[in-house]
Amino acid sequence: DIQMSQSPSSLSASVGDRVTITCRASQSINSFLNWFQQKPGKAPNLLIYAASSLQSGVPSRFSGSGSGTDFALTISSLQPEDFATYYCQQSYSTPITFGQGTRLEIK
Amino acid sequence: EVQLVESGGGLVQPGGSLRLSCAASGFTFSSYWMNWVRQAPGKGLVWVSRIKGDGSITDYADSVKGRLTISRDNAKNTLYLQMNSLRADDTAVYYCVRDLGHCTNGVCDAWGQGTTVTVSS
Q1: Tens of pLDDT, residues B76-86
Q2: Distinct helix (H) and strand (E) counts, chain B
Q3: What percentage of chain B carries pLDDT values higher than 90?
Q4: Cα three-residue angle A55-A56-A62, rounded to 5 degrees
């Protein structure tokens, strides 16, 4: 099974900050990496697919990068609505696996 | 409008059974892989199972193999998860997900609102 490891597990930041969350796969997954945002009590929302493609309607302050085993999600200027939990997920092979999540909190 | 509406969750005793359903509308159901993803209270997302559009291929997480069975009825636009030999660690919100993590021609994945399964005596 492919293990996905996110860092940090939690992060405190302020509105306007630039933040980066990283995700590492235990083996190469090419670009089969997706990023989700989840707010409390809600279903997750796909932000980035195929490592760097922004889903339609997602603000351009979100961006994804990486390939192989190392990936990153960057939010260029945090907005109040961005405080949530973020998950990476590999779709390279089954079993499909998620990272453990990164909780982004307001400083 | 794409809609996925899960039902069938509830309280069940350890060792018991439950069948979850997911009613789909607003898209050609038979054209898409469908998934179940679960989330235990306060924990992260865990993929459970998936099934191809025509039902010919199914995959499972190791933790549920032999106990949970995914199926679909394309005539009824409905996805199912038969859950047998339930354990306390199956307690979670179960989400029905179309085409998890994929976007094709601007059409991306879709999630239901989730249904809660609680396994407890």
Answers
A1: 999 999 999 99
A2: 0, 11
A3: 93
A4: 55
Length of chain A: 107
CA–CA gap between residue B39 and residue A56 (Å, rounded): 26
Interface of B with A (CB under 8 A): 35, 44-47, 50, 59-62, 95, 100-103, 106, 108-109, 111-114
Whole-number pLDDT of residue A3: 98
Contacts of A87 in chain B (CB under 8 A): 44-45
Q: How far apart are CA B19 and CA A81, in angstroms?
A: 36
Residue given tokens 């993929």 in the structure block: B47
- Angle made by CA atoms A72, B38, B92, in degrees to the nearest 5: 130
Q: Of B59, B106, B112, which is closest to A56 when you measure between CB atoms?
A: B106
Confirm if A78 and A15 have CB atoms less than 8 A apart: yes
Given a cut of 90, is residue A25 above it in pLDDT?
yes
